[in-house]
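re the bet — no i am not wrong, look at it urself. input seq straight from the record:
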Amino acid sequence: MDALAHGKKAAVEIDRYLAKKAGREPYAESLEKIQVTMTLPKEVIETPMAEIPKLDPEERIKDFTAEVELGFDEETAKKECGRCLRCDVSWLAARDKSLQIASGSAPPPTRGEEGDSARA
């Protein structure tokens, strides 16, 4: 995640530099930020990450250009995709719930419902 953040930061700085050279306004980010107040189901959090198959060391030393990580088979890839990157949380539902809470038409979340429960 840090690499993505640094990449985005670099892209913004490059745009600012190029905009200044071209005499135009730099790109302004206009994304609406929302707070997701839903938690993940326990079975999603506790599903262990699949281990990526790797090329045997004996084979690696024969060819230093060979891929070390062999990737998942289709079944494992599908299980891994279902494991979670918060795909179970619909951002539209989260936005609507947040708007209802802000307007007072829904109660605020109780303890245990709030916060980001993504794994570290």
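see?? The CA atoms of residues 67 and 102 lie 51 Å apart. told u. also The chain is about 45% helix and 0% strand. so pay up
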